[in-house]
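Thread amino acids onto this structure.
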């Protein structure tokens, strides 16, 4: 894959893609329910099997915004280095769900370098509401200490004014912190709504697939003429598959030629050209998409 794409970081980028709406699907709804990145990383021991069954992981909390994850391949699993890179991408992208920035992942020990397991040190930036909440707590503590000290130094009226100013500052910081937290929660709810929309689309696709199989089965059981059956099948495909064109091609009895037999979405000129064209299956130099797909 690296040779085909020319991208040496494709495994890591695939890991980062995991937390997108398309990549994660139902698992994203579960993860977003934990609100804080710390909670998600601490629960990765339970969540990781949703993403991969090739390794077990252990998580240790090193600080309020720092965790250690140790990944050990399961018995009988021959892990490749690109799987390790893929994990790094996943761990980076999890923090982005909450902070809009990827986490910083250090990888000091690696199973593929002869160590017993892969060890990842993950740190991420605090959210805006978290920083202001911390400022509020410090402001409250400092204000209490200052008020107690100044009570024995300043006149009562002056002390009251100082206490009022401290209270206003604490209230302003608290209100701004609450506003940021509300904004972040709104973003989380929006993301959950997008995930719900993705799930509904997935249900629609599965419903259409089930109808496609059912109607094709009914057609094959009731229509005996091959040409009529193929035309009926392509009409069913057009109705239930989200593609603007499609075709059915059949090989001759010797499997040396491939012929266009039915299709939809093509104008009359192209369809006539397809009907007059034979695709050679016995030519080893033939690399066309139809021949390669048939083989």
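Threaded sequence (295 positions):
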């Amino acid at each position: 894959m690296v040779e085909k794409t020319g991208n040496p970081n494709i495994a890591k980028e695939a890991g980062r893609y995991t937390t997108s709406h398309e990549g994660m699907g139902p698992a994203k709804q579960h993860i977003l329910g934990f609100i804080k990145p710390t909670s998600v990383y601490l629960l990765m021991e339970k969540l990781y099997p949703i993403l991969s069954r090739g390794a077990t992981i252990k998580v240790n909390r090193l600080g309020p915004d720092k965790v250690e994850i140790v990944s050990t391949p399961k018995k009988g699993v021959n892990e490749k280095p690109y799987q390790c890179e893929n994990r790094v991408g996943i761990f980076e992208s999890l923090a982005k769900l909450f902070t809009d920035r990827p986490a910083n992942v250090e990888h000091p020990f690696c199973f593929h370098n002869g160590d017993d397991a892969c060890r990842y040190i993950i740190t991420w930036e605090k959210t805006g509401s978290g920083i202001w909440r911390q400022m509020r707590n410090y402001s409250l503590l400092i204000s209490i200490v200052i008020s107690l000290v100044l009570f024995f130094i300043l006149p009562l009226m002056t002390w009251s004014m100082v206490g009022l100013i401290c209270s206003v500052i604490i209230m302003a910081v608290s209100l701004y912190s609450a506003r940021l937290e509300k904004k972040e929660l709104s973003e989380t709810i929006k993301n959950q709504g997008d995930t719900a929309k993705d799930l509904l689309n997935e249900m629609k696709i599965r419903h259409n697939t089930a109808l496609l199989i059912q109607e094709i089965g009914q057609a094959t059981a009731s229509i005996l003429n091959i040409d009529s059956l193929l035309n009926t099948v392509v009409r069913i495909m057009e109705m239930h598959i989200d593609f603007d064109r499609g075709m059915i091609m059949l090989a001759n009895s010797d499997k040396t030629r491939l012929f266009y037999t039915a299709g939809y979405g093509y104008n009359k000129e192209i369809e006539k050209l397809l009907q007059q064209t034979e695709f050679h299956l016995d030519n080893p130099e033939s690399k066309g998409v139809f021949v390669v797909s048939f083989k």
